[in-house]
Each structure stands twice: as structure tokens, then as C-alpha cells.
């Protein structure tokens, strides 16, 4: 990998590194442009639907650039999974680590020593926004790296968390705007799968990257079909309907994800399906990193076909041949739903996104939104309630094209005639 690590990266080096290190024969739309822009020192905003290949937009430049790329990511569980994936990367492992309150003292010392070397070995260092906001010593290390010209760039993953208008606002993310004050010459890359224009502009303002180059893909995932099914309010009947739906539509070799509202529900659903012959297991942020790893590995090997995950923790799930995503509980907003549904069909083959919808789940979601927690003030609750209403509109509308609704939500246009009966409403309207 060392042969790629020099300043003034040439075009052929980008393609060679993509093949030699990441095993990719080419680039997806906008990937290369975003990579070239950040390598030139520009601030960049990458807006790509789930499965669009956002991670490569900063991981490849991290390998090609002298110094360390600092990646801010919201979930410790996701960070752990990503670092493991990078270190185990084939054909070449990538030096990556994370710093958190859970990092073992011995490992923390090793990371600290590496950061103080004239030329650190690490290429990517992942941190949570909370860690960055609370650690003066980490800021001092970053300043030292910067003075040595070893601070390559900042990456803000899941950047919608920066905005109070975003569907997953986190107060410590809001403090990331300080990075531009401290390191005005260090390029920044913000990435998200789902953000309406209002959120994009707010993120740019908060992060102080007003002139960031935006790389955006179409939100129309043509290989996905969409439908909403009325969910029985009685839990036993709802579970039975879910089982029958999966069993009727898919054989046991087909891979799927079932999103649930709570950790307990994800375990209950997985156990119910498993007891009836479906190779299911659960996956949520309450598990240890090693337990999640076991599920991930079993899923990748095909020993598990269905993963039941919490809505709050779906970001780490990654498998290209997922043929269906079922929301057994309503998502709290359209952005979150589309990000989760978008984990289906990453390989480009036809896949289905289904919601089991009930007003009872909406009531539960409203109580979750109203739960007292850090940063959940009246304004935040109002924003979340407004977003939930939009999700309800999507679920309860039985005539409008679902694809048109989703694409339109993100400020893009779509002609209903092009749906070709790939949503239940268009099928129903055409049938009548």
C-alpha cells in the first residue's frame, strides 16, 4: 500500500488503488469526482442513497493521502464494524482504529503513540462526536498532526445528524462546526444517504463549509418495488402474518432484513421466525461487538438468511444480495425509512420494500419521540412529529405513486408513468 501514499496523486493512481486495495474494477457514479475533489483539498458534500458507495469516497482518499483521515461517525457499534471491515479488507488490510470510552487502555496507548510518530501508521481514525467534543487531549493531538502536515481531512459520516432539521439530530454533532474554526485549511467531507435540500443547506452552514462541492445521485432506485400492508393490531396475528408473507413470497435461500421498533421486538421476531423454520437472527446496538460480528459473519456466509434489526441500529448492515426489506414497525421519518429500505437490492437486482403499518405503532413511535432525553426539547419534538406525519402520509395514501412520493420528498422529480407498477398503489390504480 505504501506505493500509493504520496502527495500530488495522479489519475492512474486513483484507479490503481481502487483495484489493488479495494478490489474494485471501476467507480460508481460520482465516486471518482468526489475522491478527486477531496484529494485537491476541496470541501465536499456527498449525497448518495444507501448502497451508492459513500464509504469509498473517503476511504480511498485516506489511503492515497499523507497523514490521517479523521472520521466522525454517530454509533460506536457502527464504528467497530467499519474498523473491523477495514482491517480485514481484501486484498489489502487498511490501518484503521477507533477511540472511544470503551477502547482498552493498552490499545489506546498504542493509538496515542502512533499519532505522535512523525509519520503515523494509521490511515483512518474513527471517533464519535461525543468523544471529539469532550476530549481536549484529542484536539491537541489533532493540532500536533496538523502542524506536522499529517492531518489529511475530516469526514462527517451520517451528516444529517448535524442538522436540527435532520431525522437523527445529535447535539454533539452540532459542535463539529468548531473544527473549521480550529483547522480552516483542512478539507472536510460530509456524507449522508438521505437529506432534503433544507437539511443539506443547514448542514453546510453548521459545518462552515458553504462552498462545499455537492455530489448527488438520483433517489430513484429503479430495482426496488414498494408496498404497504395493513398490520393486525394483535401481536400474535401480526407475527403470523409476517411469517406467512415471507414464507409465501420467498424460499429459504432468499436474504432479507426485518426492521423492528425495539431491541426486544427484534429478538422476539427473530425467535418467532427461527422457530418456524426461517433462518433468522437478531442484530442491535445492545449486543456486544463480538455477538454482532458473529451474526454478520454468519449472514455473509449464508448461514443466516434473515436479520431482524432495530430501526435505530441499521446503519452497520451491509450485504449486496438482500432481496427484501420489511419494516415490521413504522419508521419515524421518510429519510430514515428510505435509508433502511435502500439496503435492499444493492447488487442492482429486483428487490422489495414492504411496511407492515398500524396506527398502534404510530402511537408507540410518538411516545418514543416524546421520551425525555438529551437534546429532545420542544423544537426537536415538533420536528420529529412533523416528520412522522409525513411517514404516516406515505403509509396511509392508497392512490399516489409511492416512488413519486419518495423521490419528491428529497426534492427530485419523477413521472408516475415510469413507475411501471413497481408500487402497490400504481398496481391497484391501473387494475381498476
UniProtKB/TrEMBL annotation:
Highest taxon of source: Eukaryota
Q: Which Pfam families match?
A: DEAD (PF00270), Helicase_C (PF00271), RecQ_Zn_bind (PF16124)
Example GO CC term: the record gives: cytoplasm
Q: Which family does it belong to?
A: Belongs to the helicase family. RecQ subfamily.
Its EC number(s): 5.6.2.4
Where in the cell is the protein located?
Nucleus
CDD domains in the record = DEXHc_RecQ, SF2_C_RecQ
Top-level class of the enzyme under EC nomenclature:
isomerase
Report the residue ranges that make up the Helicase C-terminal domain in this protein: 238-389
* Biological processes, Gene Ontology terms: double-strand break repair via homologous recombination
- Catalyzed chemical reaction(s): Couples ATP hydrolysis with the unwinding of duplex DNA by translocating in the 3'-5' direction; ATP + H2O = ADP + phosphate + H(+)
Residue span(s) of domain Helicase ATP-binding: 35-213
Q: Which Gene3D superfamilies match?
A: P-loop containing nucleotide triphosphate hydrolases (3.40.50.300)
Q: What's the source species for this entry?
A: Saprolegnia parasitica (strain CBS 223.65)
Q: Does the record bear Transit peptide in its keywords? A: no
What is the recorded name of this protein?
Answer: ATP-dependent DNA helicase
Q: Which GO terms describe its molecular function?
A: 3'-5' DNA helicase activity; ATP binding; ATP hydrolysis activity; DNA binding; four-way junction helicase activity; metal ion binding
Amino acid at each position: 500500500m505504501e506505493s500509493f501514499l504520496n502527495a500530488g496523486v495522479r489519475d492512474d493512481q486513483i484507479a490503481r488503488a481502487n483495484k489493488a486495495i479495494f478490489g474494485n474494477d471501476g467507480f460508481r457514479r460520482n465516486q471518482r469526482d468526489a475522491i478527486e475533489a477531496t484529494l485537491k483539498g476541496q470541501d465536499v458534500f456527498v449525497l448518495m442513497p444507501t448502497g451508492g458507495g459513500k464509504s469509498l469516497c473517503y476511504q480511498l482518499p485516506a489511503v492515497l493521502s499523507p497523514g490521517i483521515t479523521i472520521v466522525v461517525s454517530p454509533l460506536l457499534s457502527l464504528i467497530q464494524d467499519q474498523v473491523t471491515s477495514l482491517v480485514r479488507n481484501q486484498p489489502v488490510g487498511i490501518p484503521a482504529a477507533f477511540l472511544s470510552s470503551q477502547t482498552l487502555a493498552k490499545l489506546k496507548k498504542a493509538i496515542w503513540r502512533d499519532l505522535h510518530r512523525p509519520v503515523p501508521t494509521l490511515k483512518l481514525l474513527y471517533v464519535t462526536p461525543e468523544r471529539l467534543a469532550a476530549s481536549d487531549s484529542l484536539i491537541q493531538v489533532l493540532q500536533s498532526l496538523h502542524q506536522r502536515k499529517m492531518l489529511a481531512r475530516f469526514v462527517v459520516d451520517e451528516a444529517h445528524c448535524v442538522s436540527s432539521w435532520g431525522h437523527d439530530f445529535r447535539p454533539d454533532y452540532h459542535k463539529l462546526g468548531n473544527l473549521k474554526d480550529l483547522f480552516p485549511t483542512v478539507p472536510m467531507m460530509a456524507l449522508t444517504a438521505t437529506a432534503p435540500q433544507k437539511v443539506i443547506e443547514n448542514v453546510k452552514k453548521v459545518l462552515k463549509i458553504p462552498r462545499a462541492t455537492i455530489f448527488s445521485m438520483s433517489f430513484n432506485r429503479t430495482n426496488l418495488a414498494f408496498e404497504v400492508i395493513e398490520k393486525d393490531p394483535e401481536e400474535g396475528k401480526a407475527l403470523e402474518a409476517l411469517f406467512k408473507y415471507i414464507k409465501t413470497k420467498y424460499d429459504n435461500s432468499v436474504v432479507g432484513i426485518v426492521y423492528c421498533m425495539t431491541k426486544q421486538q427484534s429478538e422476539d421476531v427473530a425467535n418467532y421466525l427461527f422457530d418456524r423454520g426461517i433462518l433468522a437472527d437478531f442484530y442491535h446496538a445492545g449486543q456486544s461487538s463480538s455477538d454482532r460480528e458473529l451474526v454478520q459473519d454468519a449472514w455473509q456466509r449464508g448461514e443466516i438468511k434473515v436479520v431482524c434489526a432495530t430501526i435505530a441500529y441499521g446503519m452497520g448492515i451491509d450485504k449486496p444480495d438482500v432481496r427484501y426489506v420489511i419494516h415490521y414497525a413504522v419508521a419515524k421519518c421518510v429519510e430514515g425509512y428510505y435509508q433502511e429500505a435502500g439496503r435492499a437490492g444493492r447488487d442492482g437486482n429486483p428487490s422489495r420494500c414492504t411496511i407492515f403499518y398500524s396506527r398502534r405503532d404510530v402511537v408507540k413511535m410518538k411516545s418514543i419521540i416524546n421520551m425525555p432525553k438529551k437534546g429532545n426539547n420542544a423544537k426537536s419534538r415538533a420536528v420529529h412529529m412533523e416528520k412522522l406525519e409525513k411517514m404516516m402520509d406515505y403509509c396511509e395514501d392508497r392512490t399516489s405513486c409511492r416512488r413519486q412520493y419518495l423521490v419528491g420528498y428529497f426534492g427530485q422529480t419523477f413521472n408516475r408513468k415510469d413507475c411501471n407498477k413497481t408500487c402497490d398503489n400504481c398496481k391497484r390504480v391501473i387494475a381498476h
